[in-house]
């Protein structure tokens, strides 16, 4: 658990770790895997690839003229600010929630960096079934955001079930 002198913002170290892992893996993909190439990891199930997403989740608005880059960047900045404030206001015993928020923040910052610096998000994880069904390619930032969101949802259900007041 982060030291008390840093308060709940000590959890930002987890966000930094998520960000660094995300950017490190993307750097490796950019350096080692040619664009639009697939490398089979688990035949019929999982590949590494190298694709770009100029849109949001599931390539939402990817075919737009470029304005979406700045819209999604602005959304990520606002959400990141809200997450930092939320982390700062957490109670000492809200570890699960702190991990969830820190994971979402790290992922949001990883994809924000890609959008601002590269103009697109680098995706490289490709889950599929026998070359018939494909889940859209994603990255570690997306994974952290998704896992953090699931943890947030579980925290809300736990809070409601135990009769506690919901987190503000």
UniProtKB/TrEMBL annotation:
Coiled-coil portions: none
Pathway participation: Protein modification; lipoprotein biosynthesis (signal peptide cleavage)
Subcellular location: Cell membrane
EC category: hydrolase
Keyword field: Aspartyl protease, Cell membrane, Hydrolase, Lipoprotein, Membrane, Protease, Transmembrane, Transmembrane helix
Swiss-Prot/TrEMBL catalytic activity: Release of signal peptides from bacterial membrane prolipoproteins. Hydrolyzes -Xaa-Yaa-Zaa-|-(S,diacylglyceryl)Cys-, in which Xaa is hydrophobic (preferably Leu), and Yaa (Ala or Ser) and Zaa (Gly or Ala) have small, neutral side chains
Membrane topology note: Multi-pass membrane protein
GO cellular component annotations of the record: plasma membrane
TM helices/strands, residue ranges: 70-88, 95-113, 133-154
EC numbers for this chain: 3.4.23.36
Single GO biological process annotation from the record: proteolysis
Location of the active site: 123, 142
Pfam families: Peptidase_A8
UniProt-recorded Gene Ontology molecular function terms: aspartic-type endopeptidase activity
UniProt cross-references to NCBIfam families, sorted A to Z: lspA
Stated role: This protein specifically catalyzes the removal of signal peptides from prolipoproteins.
HAMAP family given in the database record: LspA
Family: Belongs to the peptidase A8 family.
Protein name as catalogued: Lipoprotein signal peptidase
Organism, scientific name: Metapseudomonas otitidis
Lineage: Bacteria, Pseudomonadati, Pseudomonadota, Gammaproteobacteria, Pseudomonadales
């Amino acid at each position: 658990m982060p030291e008390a002198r840093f308060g709940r913002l000590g959890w930002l170290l987890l966000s930094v770790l998520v960000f660094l892992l995300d950017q490190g893996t993307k750097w490796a993909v950019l350096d080692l895997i040619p664009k639009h190439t697939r490398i089979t990891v688990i035949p019929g199930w999982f590949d590494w690839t190298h694709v770009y997403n100029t849109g949001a989740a599931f390539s939402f608005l990817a075919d737009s003229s470029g304005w979406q880059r700045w819209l999604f960047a602005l959304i990520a900045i606002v959400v990141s600010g809200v997450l930092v404030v939320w982390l700062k206001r957490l109670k000492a015993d809200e570890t699960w929630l702190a991990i969830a928020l820190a994971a979402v923040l790290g992922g949001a910052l990883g994809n924000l960096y890609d959008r601002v610096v590269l103009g697109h998000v680098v995706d490289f994880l490709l889950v599929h079934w026998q070359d018939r069904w494909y889940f859209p390619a994603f990255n570690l930032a997306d994974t952290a955001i998704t896992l953090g969101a699931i943890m947030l949802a579980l925290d809300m259900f736990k809070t409601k079930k135990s009769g506690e007041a919901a987190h503000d």
